Amino acid sequence: MTTVTVTGAAGQIGYALLFRIASGAMLGSGTPVRLRLLEVPQAVAAASGVAMELDDCAFPLLESVDVFDDASLAFEGANVALLVGSRPRTADMARADLLAANGAIFGPQGRAINSAASDDIRVLVVGNPANTNALIAASHAPDVPRSRFTAMTRLDHNRAVSQLSQKTGAPVSAISRVTIWGNHSATQYPDVSHALIDGRAPKLDHAWVENEFIPTVARRGTAIIEARGSSSAASAANAAIDHVRDWVHGTPEGDWTSAALPSDSSYGVPEGLVSSFPVTSAGGEWQIVPGLEIDEFSRERIDASAAELADERAAVTELGLI
Ligand SMILES: NC(=O)c1ccc[n+]([C@@H]2O[C@H](COP(=O)([O-])OP(=O)(O)OC[C@H]3O[C@@H](n4cnc5c(N)ncnc54)[C@H](O)[C@@H]3O)[C@@H](O)[C@H]2O)c1
Ligand SMILES: O=C(O)C[C@H](O)C(=O)O
Fold first, then answer.
1. For the residues 64-76, what does the mean pLDDT come to?
2. Is residue 254, in this structure, part of any structural domain at all?
3. Is 45 annotated as a binding residue?
4. Residues 8 and 47 in one domain
5. pTM of the model
6. Which residue, by CA, sits nearest to atom 7 of ligand 2?
7. How many domains, the chain?
8. Which intervals hold domain Lactate/malate dehydrogenase C-terminal (predicted)?
């Protein structure tokens, strides 16, 4: 039995996520699930409607669904927490206001995880700015190992694999060793310098990588918002499922994926920043892939995204949020 807490449960991503968790897509067909949904008071009725629909699916693996507007109840006994609800940026909002508004959400949720969740809690932050929200939550949960707080760059990773597949004509299943470095923002660095297609390094046109591939992946979230009128939901939910499934069940032999984890100073990313790396998972633990050669082109981009994360950390430190 696994207890999964999902925040922002009445939102768009929540609606695309919860039914797949309940069907077994995230934890496997042998793992019964208890869902605990957290929403703000004004969205509890909507979340209860989603809970009614979950009941109506009669999922064999779904043991229970409960809805809360109190974080310390919602995280009680949680083994997995998906922090989706956040305060999105509006046009008139300064960055400090955005960080402060999210500090008011992720600080208390970190404290609730610290006091109420199970000892094996694994946290994935989806709500933006995801990396720094994860840093805030982790800093309010001193009894939980830092490595259990992660932020989602799997959607960027999947976007990168898809773009490479479309460019080369190779199926997605033939592509391995793609990496997203840094922040889930426009400064992220989608890196194909170690990518393999059918186990061999493809010959990619550097101009395409620099001028088309990288900007397309890094700005895909904005392109989706422009096209759909709201941010990616089903693909974000799918990426969250992929992230937790790989964390719990492991990554395939010979490949890696991307996830944002507290840095251990690997690849020159300052310690403690929640930054995306190439990662493998085994035994329920992420490991940063060691020893990759980093050329000058990659170095500049990894450093630029790490610098943005360091700025965000300085801003939340200044605001007293961590
Ligand atoms: N990391 C990624 O790759 C990625 C991708 C897509 C979207 N996102 C982000 O995910 C977040 C959610 O997106 P969405 O489309 O579902 O948004 P949405 O507005 O449809 O839903 C968000 C939900 O969160 C709830 N919420 C707000 N504050 C809360 C709190 N303190 N506790 C519990 N619930 C709370 C809201 O009531 C709302 O129902 C946004 O921040 C979005 O930018 C991240
Ligand atoms: O919500 C956003 O700003 C975009 C989202 O993070 C995405 O990458 O699709």
1. 98
2. yes
3. no
4. yes
5. 0.98
6. 221
7. 2
8. 153-316
